[in-house]
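Hi W., the glutathione complex you wanted:
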Amino acid sequence: MLTVHHLSNSHSHVVLWLLEELGVPYEIARHQRDPLTGRSPASLRAIHPAAKAPTIVDHGIAMVESAGIILYILESYGESRLRPSPSSAEAMQFFQWLTFIEGSAKGPLLQMFHALRLPSEDGHRKICEASAHTVLSLIEEGLEGRETITVGQFTAADIQLTFFEELLEGVGRIDAYPNMQRHLTTMRRRATYKRAEQKGGPVGLKQLFSGAVSNSK
Ligand SMILES: N[C@@H](CCC(=O)N[C@@H](CS)C(=O)NCC(=O)O)C(=O)O
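Structure:
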């Protein structure tokens, strides 16, 4: 059976949520963040040297990297659910957004988070804020007039996007992006999102981004 090595209050919530959506049986092995640094513990490093969440083990092999894990689960257990039909316009959107979030958007978001400690007139801070705004605006436009990031269909890309929006909320900037805020609110209402939280613990990134544990991502 597939095992999710679940780090408390982390990106591995998306894997629990995806498995809940698909109704795929899984086991959870729990790992706690270091209470001071927020970093993952040695127990997670023992499973995979990256020591990152999400980590899964299937077929006796440990795997990291959320977009790859999502695609692996869809391909192995999804039976064509939570993704558009192949070779369609929607499939192009789906693959783009699923990979854009961790590939192009998260780096600028985290750089902005660190730069926000600098004075507001600092030049480096301004550059970081501008480059984060560029990628955030693309996602915001992608959600314009839509409930889901792929036209007309809730997909695993919405699950991946939701965690990104939780990061943006944790950084304190989601108010500037109403479409993302609306999407986040809608996604949090899903029964499967709540079930994943019941099993894995709450997702609350504001506290993670505040003060002493700011080095946690
Ligand atoms: N690009 C990776 C990012 C993984 C990542 O940074 N995960 C965070 C949790 S949200 C983590 O493991 N933090 C603890 C640490 O780095 O020690 C992915 O998408 O899986």
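The CA atoms of residues 110 and 175 lie 17 Å apart.

W.
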